[in-house]
Each structure stands twice: as structure tokens, then as C-alpha cells.
TrEMBL record:
<feature type="domain" description="Capsule synthesis protein CapA">
    <location>
        <begin position="138"/>
        <end position="392"/>
    </location>
</feature>
<dbReference type="InterPro" id="IPR029052">
    <property type="entry name" value="Metallo-depent_PP-like"/>
</dbReference>
<protein>
    <recommendedName>
        <fullName>Capsule synthesis protein CapA domain-containing protein</fullName>
    </recommendedName>
</protein>
<dbReference type="InterPro" id="IPR052169">
    <property type="entry name" value="CW_Biosynth-Accessory"/>
</dbReference>
<dbReference type="InterPro" id="IPR019079">
    <property type="entry name" value="Capsule_synth_CapA"/>
</dbReference>
<dbReference type="InterPro" id="IPR008969">
    <property type="entry name" value="CarboxyPept-like_regulatory"/>
</dbReference>
<dbReference type="Pfam" id="PF09587">
    <property type="entry name" value="PGA_cap"/>
</dbReference>
<comment type="similarity">
    <text>Belongs to the CapA family.</text>
</comment>
């Protein structure tokens, strides 16, 4: 384990500056901890030998929960006065379920690697429970759901998730990891973005992409704890009237309630009404546009079925009817543009108009990626929940979240963001750097609308309370940078809520820039978690793949298996990354080790704007970006700089070809901490804090020396929770290695 310490007592380099942010509070507590005035950035090379896991459990005011129960994996212990200590086995994942009389239960999952307390045990970040009270209801929301297409007919040799003769058990297996997260809620909801039918009919809408999922989808969702599905989306009418009739029949025969579609316009616009904990609720669903096909996707009059059209007139009329009867009204709207960071103005206006009309909560879908939150007139708007159960193969849409919302009648009380990693098309709890990526993105996008984020354990929390103070810190880093050279350093932040804001050095010729690592899975630590197949990396043969034999950091790496007569092998991104910034300086970084001398060549391969996926993967030309000779033995830093394409490509990927030395067989080769960094700021002078806006999603720092060597510098950071100085103990998930 390598640790860098900052102590105000022995180095005199830490500055603590209290800052207040006049925004909506999201009470989050850090996983990176500061204790006894010492900050540590730790990167672990192995699991520490430890016997205990400790933590604190409080209510939302910070008061300790007096009597509670913690179920850790299969063991149950009782705790008092808000603190607990329990034995843990050397397992990679820890599932914790917290419950107490008078409180809503909560489930959180962590990897032990991110909880390692400097080799002396495991410590949880503080976790909060929400108190029960009359009229308070806990709602759980997931994003876009389908179980068709690649679930039963995957690409190439990928694992089949829904087998023809095992649909009931296989659809339940897909949702088994998120079932505990719905079980604790009073009411669960998802966006069912597919028709449900036993077989695809002959007719379908005149559109590029159409979905249908097996009838067992409905039973699996109900088994997982989903109570209601919104059908107000652009795939509800994919297979026309026949598909819609089949879907409605299956849903009517299932425990699932629904709204947002029907065989007539009146039926489609009707709300689903239900009493939850003796409180009257109404759920409305809409699609934001008719679509260009004929027939279009919206219900119309008494003669055509489809989705409920979310026109301004329809929203005002249908929301007003529910509000007039004193019902807590939840609106779900399908709109905006796919893969965007922000909602369209049309989506924003329609959701705000729904709230103007009296709606109490507004949830949006369709972009397939998560967007931020806004508090409007003391009511919560979630602009996109992203995917939840979906088979999109490229990387960005696989990072998502569930949303918990506690309502006190018609009043918004609190929300929690539960990070989800859709791993091999299976929704799983996100841990480590994937969780941080999700929460950091959400923090940055929500901050644009005045909402600040923090933690309760590994979840984000949103309230309407005034924002609290944060702290600004400066920590020393060793550079040993030769004049004229550049170095890339992982910031090593454990979780969201800690943001780099600038760099300071005595050498005024030192310049720096910040970047964001886009893949967040190149440490391979979560590769085999949750029994969900990892589909993001090229695995050429059964002997290659995840390895525990070697690791640069942590306990895992990716192994290319050598063999007699084998000359070359390819590793890298199995599919194209669609979400990238054009014409942006970027870097492939990582570590590589070989049992004999080899050469690693890095290639760019793009999918042309009009190129077909399969043809582009097989036949698109490859462009050499750089190469590295790797000598037998120690780990070597791998780094290649390039610019992302400006135009002409829909998406791209990076490939690493490994070549043997002449006269030798290809040896075993190991890769670790592989990262694709997009640089997000231009180089600027290292003259202090305040140059970089936060919250941000930065994970890496590049520093460039001028005409003289540079030994060290200060990184300025903002920590959004001042309680960290008491609660945080300096443990960090393994980060991407520096070059």
C-alpha cells in the first residue's frame, strides 16, 4: 500500500478554509476520510488483513440511532447508540441492510477494497436512516427497462441471458441484484420501454429500432418489488395495435399497475390511482412527441391506441384533474435528446408547467444517461434516470442510478441517489470508481441548477434544507519532474464530493490541466462481481481474461495468455465508445507487464458516421497511435496521447496489439489500470486555487515542467462536507496509475 500524508503538525501544508455554498443541500458524507488532522491518499496493492468492519448510523439530523439491526451478507448483529463493529470475512463485496424501529430500512453495498482503513480494518462512511411518520411514503424509481434484443440474441459469443426454455428464471436472475433496493420502499416504479408479448408480430412501426420483451418480464419486475410501470414512451407502440393489446393484457394479468398508454386517448391520459400508506396518489405518464412514422406512436381520439401525448394542453388538463381531488400527483415524462447532459428546454418547460399546475414530483426519461436534479417551487425534478435494464453495449449508458424519494403527503422531504452499474446488461449496485463516476456526474449537472450533493454511505442525498459549509484543503504531491517533461497523476479521490480546484508550485513555469477518465473499469476489480458478464473488453480465448496472479494495484489485472506458436494478441475496448467530446486532447494510460520482452502497439479504430456496427468492428481501418517496448519483469507505464476525432465518426475504440519478440512465443502479458482520459481544461499556470469550477468530474492531473526540474506541488481541493475532518479516515479505491 502506498500512502501520501498531509499533516498540519509536521508538514504545515494544509489550509482549511470554510466556505459556504448558497445552494440546495444534498447531505453526503465522504468515503475519503480525514482523521486527527491528517489527510492520506492511499492506493492499495492488496486487501489488508482485518477482522472488523465499523460504522456509524444516524438519523437525518445526525443523531445516533439507538437500537438497530445490521444484516451483513447472511449474518445479523444488533447495534446501539449509532455505532457498530462486526466481523467480516475476506470477501470482496459487503452487502449491508440497516433497519431500526421507526425508520425506513436501507440497503448499501461496498467493496472491501474501498473500505480498507490503512491496513487496520474496514470502516464505513456514516449512513443515515429516514424516520417514519404518518403520511410519509418512500418511493423507488428506476429508469428505462426492456428485456428483448441482445438479452436473448447477444452479439457474437456473448452470454445468453434469457434462454428460450428458462425465461421465468432468467428474467428474475436479471433483476436479482436490485430486488433488495425495491424491497424497502413503499412503492416501486420503472419506465417499461418495450412492448411485452410472447412473439414478435408481423407488423411493426416504420422506425429504425423496435423492441419487444417476453411476458415473463412483467412477472420478474413484480418479483423484484416494482409495483407500477409508466408506458408513456416512444416504444410503447413499436409493434402497433397488436403489440399494445398484448402488452396491456399481460400487464392486466400481472401485479403491475400502469398508466401512460391505452387503446384510446382518454385511457392513455388516465392516471393510475392508488392509496399508499393511506395517502392518495396519482401516477401519470407521457411521451413528448408523436413520432414521424405512420401510424404515429401517440393515442388519438377513440379510434387509435398508443402512448399518452405529453402536450402542454394534455399535461395541464390531466394533472389539474388529479390535483383538484387532493391527490399527490407524480408525473413521468419521456423527452429530451438521447445521451445529452441537459434536458431540452421543451422538457424543462413541460415538467415545470406540470408543477405549476400542482404536480408534486416530476421524473423524466429517454436520454439513456443520467442527468441532474432541480428543486422547483420546493418540488423535485429528475431530468433523466438513464437506463435501468437495457442492452446498450457502449460504455456511458451503463452508468445509472435508482432514485428514492420520501414524500410527506404532497411535500417533498428527501431523495437518495443509488448508483447502478448495468454490467453486461444486468443492473447491479455500483461500487468504487464506477459509483464515483455516477455521483460526480450527477453532482456537476445538478450544481448547474442550484442543487449540491454529498453522501449518506455510498448514496447521494437531496433535501431542501440550506446548504452547509465545506472545506478547502491543499495537499502536497511529489512530482520529481524533469525540465520539459510531463507527468499524469491520478487524483485518487475515493468518491464524489471531493473536487480538485487548482495547482500551486513555486516554479511559475509549471503548467497543468485536469482530465476525466471515461471507462472507470480498467482496474478490473469489479470484473467478476455479481456473476454478471463483463462485455466491455476483448477476450480472445478462454485462457485470457481476469487474473489474480499479478496486479499493479489492488488484487486483479487482465491477462493475455501466451501459448506455443502464438505470435500476436489483441486487447482493448470490445465496442466503440459513443459518448466522447470531438476534437479533444485525450490519452490512453495504464500499466503493462510481460513474462518476456514484447511490443505493445496502440491503435485507433472509428465507426464512420454512416457505418454499420458489425462491419466497422470487423473492417474499419486501424490507425497506429503509438507503441511501447516492454521488457521482461517489472510493470511499465503505458501512455499514448491523441486527439479525439472532430468529424466523420459516430464512435471509436482503442485497441492494444501485443507482439512477441522474433524467435519467441508470445508470453503471458498483464494489463492494469487502463484508462481513457479526456482532458477537460487547457494548460494553465500553477499559481493556486480557484481556477477550476467545482463540482467537477476530474480524475487526473497532467503537469508539465518548464525550463527547470520540479520536485513537488500543492493540489487545492474542495470537500463539500466539513464533517469529513471527523468522519473520514483516508481510504481510497485503487485509481488509474500515473504515467
Amino acid at each position: 500500500m502506498t500512502c501520501y500524508y498531509l499533516s498540519g503538525l509536521n508538514q504545515a501544508i494544509m489550509e482549511v478554509i470554510k466556505e459556504y455554498k448558497g445552494r440546495v443541500l444534498v447531505m453526503m458524507r465522504s468515503i475519503c476520510l480525514i482523521v486527527f488532522g491528517v489527510f492520506s491518499l492511499c492506493q492499495f496493492t492488496s486487501f489488508a488483513t482485518a477482522e472488523t468492519l465499523s460504522g456509524r448510523l444516524t438519523d437525518t439530523s445526525g443523531a445516533p440511532v439507538q437500537n438497530f439491526t445490521v444484516q451483513i451478507n447472511k449474518d445479523v448483529i444488533k447495534g446501539r447508540d449509532g455505532v457498530f463493529t462486526l466481523d467480516v470475512e475476506q470477501t470482496e463485496l459487503v452487502s449491508l441492510q440497516f433497519s431500526a424501529p421507526g425508520f425506513f430500512p436501507i440497503t448499501q453495498i461496498f467493496s472491501l477494497l474501498e473500505l480498507n482503513h490503512m491496513g487496520k480494518g474496514y470502516a464505513l462512511p456514516p449512513i443515515q436512516l429516514v424516520a417514519r411518520k404518518p403520511g410519509r411514503v418512500m418511493l423507488a424509481f428506476g429508469g428505462d427497462v426492456m428485456m428483448g434484443r441482445r438479452y436473448s440474441s447477444p452479439r457474437g459469443d456473448e452470454t445468453v441471458l434469457i434462454r428460450p426454455d428458462h425465461k421465468a428464471e432468467d428474467t428474475k436472475a436479471i433483476v436479482r441484484h436490485v430486488k433488495p433496493y425495491f424491497d424497502g420502499a413503499d412503492y416501486g416504479s420503472v419506465n417499461l420501454e418495450t412492448q411485452v408479448m410472447s412473439a414478435r408480430p408481423k407488423g411493426s412501426a416504420s422506425k429504425l429500432v423496435t423492441f419487444f420483451s417476453p411476458p415473463e418480464t412483467a412477472a420478474a419486475l413484480a418479483w423484484a418489488g416494482v409495483d407500477y410501470v409508466t408506458l408513456g414512451n416512444n416504444h410503447t407502440y413499436d409493434n402497433l395495435e397488436e403489440g399494445l393489446v398484448a402488452t396491456l393484457d399481460i400487464l392486466n394479468d400481472s401485479p403491475l399497475a400502469f398508466s401512460g398508454a391505452g387503446l384510446t386517448e382518454k385511457a392513455a391520459l388516465a392516471a393510475h390511482r392508488i392509496d399508499i400508506s393511506d395517502m392518495p396518489y396519482s401516477f401519470l405518464g407521457y411521451v413528448g412527441w408523436k413520432g414521424g412514422g405512420q401510424p404515429h406512436q401517440a393515442a388519438e381520439g377513440d379510434h387509435k391506441g398508443g402512448a399518452a401525448l405529453g402536450s402542454m394542453e394534455n399535461i395541464i388538463r390531466s394533472v389539474g384533474a388529479e390535483v383538484a381531488e387532493g391527490r399527490t400527483t407524480v408525473v413521468q415524462y419521456h423527452g429530451s435528446l438521447e445521451y445529452g447532459e441537459e434536458p431540452t428546454l421543451l422538457t424543462e418547460q413541460r415538467l415545470k408547467s406540470a408543477i405549476d399546475q400542482g404536480a408534486d414530483l416530476a421524473i423524466a426519461h429517454h436520454p439513456h444517461v443520467v442527468q441532474g436534479f432541480e428543486i422547483y417551487k420546493d418540488r423535485l425534478i429528475a431530468y433523466s434516470l438513464g437506463n435501468f435494464i437495457f442492452d446498450q453495449y457502449f460504455y456511458g449508458p451503463q452508468f445509472s442510478y435508482m432514485l428514492y424519494v420520501w414524500m410527506d403527503g404532497e411535500k417533498f422531504h428527501r431523495a437518495e441517489i443509488v448508483p447502478v452499474y448495468i454490467k453486461g446488461y444486468v443492473p447491479t449496485p455500483a461500487t468504487g470508481p464506477v459509483r464515483r463516476a455516477i455521483l460526480s456526474r450527477t453532482a456537476e449537472l445538478s450544481d448547474r441548477r442550484g442543487v449540491s450533493l454529498g453522501y449518506s454511505g455510498g448514496h447521494g442525498v437531496i433535501t431542501t434544507a440550506p446548504a452547509s459549509s465545506g472545506v478547502s484543503l491543499a495537499r502536497n504531491i511529489s512530482l520529481d519532474l524533469i525540465a520539459g517533461k510531463e507527468k499524469v497523476i491520478s487524483l485518487g479521490h475515493c468518491t464524489a464530493g471531493v473536487y480538485a480546484t487548482g495547482v500551486e508550485a513555486q516554479d511559475t513555469d509549471l503548467t497543468y490541466r485536469f482530465g476525466q477518465e471515461m471507462l472507470r473499469r480498467g482496474d478490473f476489480e469489479s470484473f467478476d462481481h455479481f456473476d454478471a458478464p463483463e462485455r466491455g473488453w476483448i477476450i480472445e480465448d478462454p485462457a485470457s481474461g481476469l487474473s489474480r496472479d499479478e496486479a499493479y494495484q489492488g488484487v486483479k489485472s487482465f491477462k493475455i495468455s501466451g501459448a506455443t506458436g502464438k505470435k500476436t494478441a489483441t486487447f482493448g475496448m470490445k465496442v466503440f465508445t459513443r459518448l466522447y467530446r470531438p476534437a479533444t486532447p485525450s490519452s490512453l494510460i495504464g500499466q503493462v507487464r510481460a513474462d518476456q520482452d514484447v511490443t505493445v502497439k496502440v491503435y485507433f479504430q472509428g465507426r464512420p458516421t454512416r457505418g454499420k456496427l458489425g462491419d466497422s468492428l470487423e473492417n474499419a481501418p486501424k490507425k497506429l497511435l503509438g507503441s511501447l517496448k516492454v521488457a521482461k519483469g517489472d510493470w511499465r507505464r503505458l501512455s499514448v496521447d491523441y486527439n479525439s476525432p472532430r468529424v466523420g465518426y459516430r464512435s471509436y475504440r482503442l485497441l492494444l496489439d501485443v507482439e512477441r519478440e522474433e524467435g519467441r512465443d508470445l508470453p503471458d502479458v498483464y494489463f492494469d489500470n487502463i484508462g481513457l482520459v479526456e482532458w477537460r481544461t487547457a494548460y494553465q499556470s500553477a499559481d493556486g486555487a480557484g481556477h477550476v469550477k467545482f463540482p467537477n468530474q476530474y480524475t487526473h492531473l497532467a503537469v508539465r515542467a518548464g525550463q527547470q526540474n520540479v520536485n513537488q506541488a500543492l493540489i487545492h481541493e474542495y470537500h463539500d462536507d466539513p464533517a469529513r475532518e471527523e468522519d473520514v479516515t483516508g481510504r481510497c479505491q485503487k485509481g488509474t496509475a500515473a504515467r
